[in-house]
Predict the structure.
Amino acid sequence: MNRAGFARVTVITIFVACTMIPGVPAAPALAAASVAAPTRWGAQCGSQALGLGQDTVQLAPILASDTTPTGGPIVRRSASGGTWVPVIMVHGWTSQDTNTSARTGAFSHIIDLSDNPDFVPDISRSLIGELQGVLGAAVFTFDYHPYSARWVDDPHLGPALGKVIDCLYRASGQKVIIVAHSMGGLIARYAATHAGVAGNDRASEISTVVTFGTPETGSVAALLAETGVDFGAVTSAELAVIRLVLSACGNFATDDIKSGSLCDELPAPIRAFESASGVALRAGSPELAALKPWPHSIDVDALAGNATFEVPRLGWFSLPGSTRPVDVGDMVVTRGSALAGATSTKDATCDYQLDPVRGATDQLGLLFGQIAASQVAQQPLRAFTGACFHTALMRGLELTAEALGAAAEAIRGAAAAMTSTIVPVVKCPTTDTFPPSGPRLPATETIPAPASVGDQLAYYSDATRRIRPILAPRGWSCSFAIGADGSIAISVFPPGESPPPGGPPEGAESVLAYNASACVGCIDQVACPLVPHVARELVPSSPGVAADCGPAQPREQQETWLAGSPGYSASGSDVVSVVDPPGVKGYVAGSGGQSPADGILLYWWGPASNPGASSADCTLPSSSAPLCQAILSTFRQQHWTGY
């Protein structure tokens, strides 16, 4: 019996020849969990699986030094109904965001800044750590650093992020959330406005985007590089102030500037301004003009730094100490550019003093208690290390709190949508050697799925409605077979078709389930392709069983262990999910066609209970990914054995 060809459907009559296990099969209870758990998505949607070259896509690890307000460890937990929502972090230009203990990633720094100079946050987490503590948040990082000098239409930037969005949306059945900094927001905008798995854009795959300092209409700092820093002196007040503050960097030794400030790192960004992305980022560039606007159905929460410099007034009637405010954004992106096209916005506001007379007066007022510290503008070079500076926006309390709230709200909305739906229980034509006994199932059952998914599904059982059903698309045809040893095979296929004698052909749409809890040889054949020690683990129950794993599984097949491990154990329970990408003929029946094929294997063994194995396959078009997710998730939650 060959599992890959799903010959199990057609060989019910030979089950009698398999080694029989006396007694009724008993499967250990497993905690209900989604088959598309975040750990699986990390493998399924990683850069290697998607062919993204040196891009790095991973489920962000939880850092031991990121702790809760009470000092405890951060723990990932699903939202109500077992809901998980992917949150994708996308860093900015010339940066990175892989989450490591070195905290060099754009979103990995501890939140330690505030736009209130009187307040120092006491937070022991980064923005990634904060998001990892949100119920239902599965936080991923998309790191394109090796290609960051290229423009957003490069295959490793916008198109690559689009592939990750497609994969996570399909795997989770949930719209993703994107949190992006600087040019990362433009990469997300490119991905959102190009075709995905379900339409001409990805509006149906993305619920919310949070941007930090994204130059939607360009960067003034990039514009300065066009003809040199002095260009700003004759262009506008904003550019003139940025030019003046940047020129101050030359008056200080490196040791006088905090590590990581713009003064410390200025040569590298200026070199990068001459790259393809640097030229494209200049305000008014044709590349920016070619980007499509955000789709209207996506909530875009734009966050901006808003540094205001008090500049001396010039003219005949200006008094000493008289100033006027000039807003310069985050010193790289103006406030107007960062907030353009958004559905909601928030600023971090910081005031700085460029007038020495006014600055001295403020300090005297502060000394004698005439004014509060919050009313005194800060020294100009603090603009490079404060909460309003471009690269420090993700360290600021005010903006990170806004980002956290936006993500949490989107996840709560997704969890609330996961309501229960009533589905019919369909009776299938059944071939049985020994008819099942026990109570009949009701004509309808309730499943934990929103109506948008549940209304497309039905339960399928045997002709007497006594076998535990499986989910499959509503209105399809089905067949049931029960072997003399109690093994069960069910096939659900599009209406008007008949189950082919050798199992579904490559790429055929189908939902299949099989249980071999009473046949040791059958357990071996079902589990062996994925579980390397199955024969040895079954030997205590039946010493004569030999391993027959069939042909090697294809290299492109994606396997994720959701429970248990590939190592040998005297007893246990394994849960392995499988994805055969389009064009790959592998473990999942129906694989090898234009649609991805998803499967799951449940395998248990040991002296405490009779061994057994159950598997389910779902081969549907990519646009029906939420259906496969619900079908396989329910299969695992039930620990389906048929009885």
User: Anything to note?
Assistant: DSSP finds 18 helices and 20 strands in the chain. The radius of gyration is 30 Å.
